Amino acid sequence: MRFRLLILFLVLWTSSAEHQTSQEESINAHPTLEHSFLWVDYSVLGVMLLVSCLIGTFYAFCTKKQETSQDFLLGGSSMGTLPMAMSLGASFITAIELLGNPAEMYSQGTQFWMTCVSFILVIPITSQLYLPVYMKLRLTSSYEYFNLRFHRHCRLLASGLYMLQMILYTSVAVYAPALALSHVTGLHRYIAVSLVYVVCIFYASQGGMKAVIMTDTFQAIVLLLSLFVIVALGMINAGGISSVWKDSWDTDRIEFFVMDPSPTIRHSFWSVVVGGTFYWATMFCSNQASVQKYMSVKSIGQVRKALWVSALSLIVIYTINFLTGMVLFSVYKTCDPLKASQISGMDQLLPLYVMNFMGKYPGIPGLFVAGIFAASLGTVASALNSLAALTCEDILNGLFHIQVPPSKGAAYARWISIFFGVLSFAFVFIVERLGSVLQVALSFNGMVGGITLGMFTLGMFIPWSNAKGTIAGALTALVLVLWICLGAQVAVLNGEIETTTKFTSIESCFGLNNTSAMDSMPTESSEMVSSFYRISYLWYSAIGCIVTVIIGTLVSFLTGPQDPADLDYDLLSPPIRYLLNRSPKKHITGITNFALELEDEKITGDTTKSPK
Hints:
This is Slc5a8 protein. One of its GO terms (cellular component) is plasma membrane. The chain contains 22 helices and two strands. It is mainly α.
């Protein structure tokens, strides 16, 4: 443990020692860059990383020894409601979103903020329709559900897709922000990526779920503090919220109800709210990392409270992000850094602003970068823990029928977590060479989530669905959504699809002769491009889920539907159980009344459930 901490200090010391060179390189690369990282900033970042390591050390060596895989992966179902809620919210916020949402407001307006409505809609859906099944079964791997409801092939398909999704997505979620930060802060991207993985692999592999949840809670506090400080100072420097609001209002950036029903509109009310509800349902209702955290507490009532707390925290974070975007426009309204070639991508806009306007406050850039690192750490830690759970339950046990001795379960899970951390780190160097295919990797997250949600929906809501239908629906949806996504990316690369942006200007940029640049008029897409390729990315999850359910249901009826009488009703959603219980067929016994189940706030479940 001391050796690992020594390595961490050496890396930070090396970063600080190279600060002067990095600062000169950054300023030479960006003539308008006025500040760079100071030793105070490195110290703030170092403290955040050190505390994260110490939390992992505490739960690994100073608390009750974790022996079984359930202890390591589920925290012994002994976590508190608030820490679990904070961890849940932190795992949903990636560094990509922290940099991308303000830039979205800057270039596109406030329509995307309406995704906050999706948070409110998705919580009752999760709490009343999907959560009771998970809490009743108490499964370490949520995909074990498919083995109980359908067939182990369904379980392996879902597990394989999730593993591919998370390994690729975590690499992108760490590398993309590190690349953006390196362009304007002078913090080398390889150092940033290495720090995230070294720290994350250490505390996630040593402390298990308890360390992940408690570290996420600490990192969520750091994240919120950095966001509040940046937006507060930004508002003051920009002349107050009234001035900032007026600048956005005058350029038509304030819009919440773009009611055009066309699915090709990138951000409309329908794509953001309806499509966004499907996307966030994949995160809350069917994501292994989320379900695993639900299992870390004892009662369903705790989870329901935690869901509302996490949703409210997400609304706060998104609101701050968009206020920050409004500040960015007020500052750069007469000199767009992207058009002035001061930055090469919109994800560099916020770091550029922080370094130029907050760099005069010692420690603030360090706090900002610590917040970005915190978001990356939360994403990776949750992924590593969930991948370890899937490997133990679905691969070792489900595929190879290897029974891990209970006394060695935690050791197996620990080494598996380390393996996936190293594998994800190695993928960073592959992701680095993907270039424009990065967007495909990000879109793949929503695609797989929608398909998995559709598979769970088939199992819990369509009692006649069978394994053949579920696999057919999932594969059909995967091919369709991949075709749409890849086709869209090719069209973008060929210049056949362009994104419309709001008003920007370069009239006050020093050394530029252009008086203004205005992109507020829609850009016509080529008529040769299929309408499928112009579908908003926010509909990918909805398409994946709906196609999986429709095709799965049709194929199930064509190949011989499942007889509901042969099902264990604990595998069905409460409303479906209630409806079947009221049906004329009364020969099914042992069914709990739906009304009584809704009143039960202390469902503990039974891990030995199996179909009748």
